[in-house]
């Protein structure tokens, strides 16, 4: 994944994903349940994608890949910024995007998670 279209397509395939522009016209923010899981700097060259990440894993990724740095203007503990210059394995970028989405979904209420799974909030008591 190294184009805006590829990132948007992958994000749109995740349950409950919403595209927003809460900061400016150049920062695409993907949310689930009203919470951010990805930020894409549309005017950066190469593209810059910030993703939520497990703190220990975030540090390991930064040590392993020079294209992965602490989150730009975000919590350095919980966010990484990926430089999408074509050198990171596409599978890794996809896996980190899905991981970010999953972390945010896990932080939602049971009712919100149930709604993402297509269940009514009343069904949550049976989960």
TrEMBL record:
It holds the Pfam family YjbR. SUPFAM superfamilies: YjbR-like. Gene3D superfamilies: 3.90.1150.30. This is MmcQ-like protein.
